[in-house]
Amino acid sequence: MRDWQETFDQNVLVPPHPQRLRQPLRESTAFQCVLKWLDGPLVKQGVLEVLSEVGCHLRVSLFDVTYRHFFGRTWKTTGRPVEPLSRQPSRIVFNEPLYFHTPLNHPNIVAVVEVVAGGRRRDGTPQALSCGFGILRIFSNKPESPSSAPQDKRLRLYHGSPRALLHPLLQDPIEQNKHMTVIENCSLQCTLRPHPALEPAFHLLPENLLVSGLQHIPGLLPAHGDTGDALRKPRLQRSVTWYLDDVFVTLYPSLEKFEEELLGLLTSDHFREGGGPLDGGALEISERRLCVGVHSGLGFVHRPQVMVLVPEREVALTRSASFSRKVGSSSKASSGNQALVLRSRLRVPEMVCHPAFAIVFQLEYVLNSPPGVDGNAASVTSLASLACMHTVRWAVWTPSPEASSGSVTLPLQGGIRPNPLHCLVYKVPPASMSSDEVKQVESGTVHFQYSLSPDGHPDAPTGPPRVERRPSGKMATSPSGPPVPLPQGLVTSQDSPVGPGLSLSQLAASPQSPTRCRSAKPSSQQPDSPEPSQAQAQEFSLEGGISHLEADLSQTSPAPGPCVAEQLQELPFAPVHAPIVVGAQTRSSGRTPSRATLALLQASGFPEVLDANKQPVEAVNPTDPVKFDPQKEESDPLQSSEIVLQFLAFSRVPEDDRGAPWPNTVYFTFQFYRFPPVTTPRLQLLELDGMGTSRSGPVSHILAPVGQDGSFHAGSPGFRLSYLVGPGLLRPGEQRWFTRYLALQTLQLDVWDGDSLLLVGSTAVQMKHLLRQGRPAVQVSHELEVVATEYEQDAMVMSGDVAGFGGIKPIGVHTVVKGWLHLTLANVGHLCEQRGRTSSSLPPSRSQVISNDGAGRFEGGSLLTRGGPRRKRNVVQAQKLTDVDSELAAMLFAPTRPGGRGPQGAGQEGDAVRRRKLERMRTVRLQEAAGEGGCRRTGVLALQDVRAQHARDLQVIAAYRERTKAQSIASALSLAITTEHSICATLGTAEFFEFVLRNPHSTPQTVTVEVDNPELSLVLDSREWRHFKDVARLHTPVEEDMFRLRGSLAPQLLLRPRETAHIPFKYQIFSVAQVSADLGPEKDLEPGSPGKPSTMPTRHAKALFRAGGGRPLAELHLTVQPQPHAVDQVFRFYHPELTFLKKAIRLPPWRTLPGAPVGMPGGEPPVHVRCSDPSVICETQKAQGPGEPRDVFLKVASGPSPETKDFYVAIYRDRWLATPAQIWQVHLHSLQRVDVSCVMGQRTRLSLVLRGTQTVRKVRAFTSHPQELTIDPRGVFTLPPHGVQDLHVGVRPRRAGGRFVHLNVVDVDFHQLVASWLVCLSCRPPLISKAFEITMAAGQGKGAHKQITYTNPYPFRRTYHLHSDHPQLLQFKEDAFQVEGGETYTIDLQFAPRRRAGEEEILIHINDHEDKNEETFCVKVVYQ
């Protein structure tokens, strides 16, 4: 058997692509791949003639198609000889199994199989030639895992070498690429199947390692039998536990000099990399860590334990004298050569008696720099400057098989040689002038005592025997994951505390933080003992930024018995991400248009909405209450409704800053009912010259269509869309759902800038006023607030304000009213054609009690009954067998030529009818030819041929009927017990019904209920059953403990002879099919033609009731028609790509939700949440107290840019999740992230790289905050194909804190998005040098004129620029001025009035010629 070093050197793995590792990984899946045989003449005759001893073998490698990257390790089979004959053998048999496991569950992770021929040249040197390769798809395109059934695959082989896959022209799907040439008549047969039996050995096999079952794996026992396949059913070797005591590390030449040199070299490296100069004391050592783990030569068996080392001088006061003497005697080389000591016993339970198993020691140093050293500490996102971790030394120890106790000293290793940690290690001293003895110790040593007995060490207390822990079948959790608590009895006072693998943010934690760890002492310790308090003070006096410290184990508890590990109790914790208050987003307010506004809109020439009789439509007030009567809507003779949406104007807010940007064109996106999502054409905003002023402000801009060339369309202003909803488009019974949709739903509208493709804002309008209630037509006009919502970065948000009882001010959320949208909605009734209704067009039954008495039973006898009503399901029309079964038709009409390959199968059954006609024509002609005198012999032969053909056909038909007889009889019998039912379901709402099941037998039956759809489930709890019956007002009986539950098996119930029982079911949908609209406006959309309603996919579910012996007793077929659901809130988040979005959304008080009872005792009910996307983590916590707010926490993984993820969140206030109280829609846009750390009022410059596309484009850059972020080039510029263009960005923020700014690059000709960035600003406030205060009158005043002075502190002339954070309130007479050295300049200030009273702090930034801030003045303005 090979030792550890040989095993480690021969099993070096290439890691996956870094971009692939950044994506969220799933659980690792094990596979078995059996390479069976190779068909075809792959080895050419020329190779056989040139080489001797020719053999063939296969090589298998893992390949990432997306990033064109080979990873893992190439595995090859044993060679198979190839005989140099003229006729090569057509098959080479391998039959070798291959095993591996990988967490990279993606369709583009494939296995590449290469066929290699090897032999010897005439001079005897070996040579290998690639004969072709194949591609084995491991994962399917479906998101779920591969099926457990084995997949027999025949791989096509391609010319060339697998290195061709690295060429950039080979894009996915590579099998269909034109550059791939298939080798004719050659293939590889293999079998791929999941192999769950390999999971217990995951800790012994690294991920993505291809191994053979015949290969010896350290830690596994040999296989039973003659197969030798140890991985088919792996058996683990028994593990032993080693105990290490008195561990200390000695560094050369001394600990002080070693650490001094380490800090000096790190400081010089920091300066060399452009990080700025650091003084010698800038870096400090926070922690010295020793990572100890068991390594099998292939990888670590478990995650290494993290222990804390302390210098010997610091442990001398708290350790016993015996330990101090041992350390001193072992490290007496020099008085200054002190050691790093581990103060506790180390327990290693994963060792196996195998030469390849070893214990690996790793010495790490954790360093941190105080904030503000290099000038980057103000950047919240750069934590790397605060803490870093470096590996300095490592060592490996392989215990001897016969050793049981003793001591050992190992030399430490470092430098560039490969190590089991696969990381860079600190350099070792140069060995050019050292002897062999000195080389063993000059890099340092680690000394320890080892033992197999838990009480072998004299300092270890006696206790109960240790329980060995077997290796886990799963991989260890991530370093950031929660630690798994050990069973009681496994941890004693001498067990070393295992520290977690800390992240940089944890390393940067301040030691003075109030949340630092407290020293845990046994409860039985006497409080008057002086030593523990002294040790505790010594423990907390140590400096460092790491909060977890090693427990002082020198003090033992006076109480007898073993020390038991206690479970930590969770403390109340407030999340860092600040909550978003529901109601402050897209639920914008509307108002009734004034008469002045209506008169101005009417004078602008908008087309009038007319009813079916060409008369003006009755207008209603949007503030009037609506009385909804469903019966009146259903009895309306005008069953067809034409829903009209007319966009009239988009007005600017009067208080808006006139210098702020205003779009030239806009377009709207929305979705009405189940029609496809609509993106309107671009509409131009035309400013009105004579604006009519109302109490709410003027109507500033009306909407007008834009022509194809971008010019103004000289037609009627506005934009109009019409939806025709009637019986011709709705399914039977859907009219009731559409009426309910109008009564309860709100239409969500998004307003986009037509030039920059940036979101202007969102709004929502209620549609309950579109209910006609017997009127011929109705219309309503709205003025809707278009609100833009900005979210601050969570790291910048610290607290929020309470705004009165029961209300919370949004934390980190800023809403700005962008404008007012003038919208007219109308509903015009039309008559529909009267058609005779058939049974199939009747609406589905609304009854919630389903009986199987009316199931389609078949009485036997004639299938067609004369003179009576016909049941369509019982009518069977005689059909030709060739029209029923395509396989039979292909067999009957296939030619039977000698030497032919027989029928081509069911792939050509489309030509069966044509062949049948040709055969008939041939028979007729042969019969005509037989009637002639000269062709009698030919006619006799033809007749014999026809008879033989008919005999063959009859045999085929008889075999077919015999095969399908049992299936046909079973189908007819199943139809007799089948009940069909249709329901309409919406997202999150549970549809309850009962199925009446009757036992037709005279004996008791144990019925098993099997359901094939997880969305259909039985109601097992009687309390839940009673709740649904109360809601549905059903009076059928409720039974307690009706079902017998058997774990994961199907539930059962007992039916007495001839007994009838009501089986409760509920159907609930939590997933929806997403249909997303394009970001850009549509140019082909014509007014009035939004398209037909999209058919939401119909779902099916089946419940089968089986009696004893598996006989079917009844069957329920459920047809589900999904309906649109209400959306109460819309959230739209922009987040950096490939990161996690973590948000807390605060719920409104539950008593304000619709349907909440008044005065309900018992406090607030529990709140439950469900999400439509299973990959989104959605949860809520219990209320901390009465009246406390509740938050819904979301954790979403963002995809690559520019991917958009849409999902829904359902909020329930009942424990049975019957009906959601609210449904939220969440849009997550993933964008490229750019971090900028800046100062308020000062310009910060950066550059972005813009890459060209396939063709030449005329593009322009736009930003969401043009007053704070400028771009060069500013206008339209040409982007060459495949070229690179630098965008110079200048940022001068007006508000401190963290927030997001959007940057889009748009094709101005086609209005397409070329590139997009999310600029994350981290802005800190400037230093205020002077402060002033003035008082002004609020209202329509003239403002105020003030002056302040500024003195140039420099001895020469300087040019200064003036900026303000509120340009709408403060204007400068001169934005720039020059002043001589030492002289004073007077700055004229003009303050504008403000309508409302209050206070405002205005900052005045004085910047130099490079736009750097020299001074900042603060003026507090009080408006009275």
Notes on the protein architecture:
- The protein has 1424 residues and is mainly beta.
- Helices cover 12% and strands 35% of the residues.
- The chain is built from 17 helices and 65 strands.
- Strands 1, 2, 3, 4, 5, 6, 7, 8, 9 and 10 form a ten-stranded antiparallel β-sheet that branches. Strands 11, 12, 13, 14, 15, 16, 17, 18 and 19 form a nine-stranded antiparallel β-sheet that branches.
- Strand 24 and strand 25 form a beta hairpin.
- Helix 15 packs antiparallel against helix 16.
- The protein is globular.
SSE layout and pairings?
Elements lengths: L3 H6 L8 H5 L6 E11 L5 H6 L1 E13 L4 E8 L3 E2 L9 E12 L6 E12 L5 E12 L13 E8 L23 E13 L16 E2 L26 E12 L4 H18 L11 E12 L9 E7 H4 L5 H10 L8 E3 L4 E7 L5 E11 L18 E11 L7 E7 L24 H4 L5 E7 L52 H4 L22 H11 L38 E3 L8 E2 L3 H9 L15 E2 L9 H5 L5 E13 L12 E6 L7 E2 L3 E5 L5 E2 L2 E2 L2 E5 L13 E7 L9 H10 L1 E8 L5 E8 L10 E15 L21 E18 L18 E3 L29 H4 L1 H7 L19 H20 L4 H41 L1 E8 L5 E8 L6 E7 L4 E3 L3 H11 L19 E4 L4 E8 L31 E8 L5 E11 L6 E8 L3 E7 L21 E4 L5 E4 L10 E7 L6 E9 L9 E18 L4 E8 L5 E7 L5 E4 L4 E3 L4 E8 L5 E11 L4 E13 L5 E7 L7 E8 L6 E7 L5 E3 L3 E4 L4 E8 ...
Parallel strand pairs: 20-45, 22-33, 35-37, 36-43, 44-50, 50-57, 58-65
Antiparallel strand pairs: 1-5, 1-9, 2-3, 2-4, 2-6, 5-10, 6-7, 7-8, 8-9, 11-14, 11-15, 11-19, 12-13, 12-16, 13-14, 16-17, 18-19, 21-33, 23-30, 23-34, 24-25, 24-26, 24-31, 26-29, 27-28, 31-32, 33-34, 37-41, 38-40, 38-42, 39-41, 42-43, 45-48, 46-49, 47-48, 49-50, 51-55, 52-54, 52-56, 53-55, ...
Helix pairs in contact: 15-16
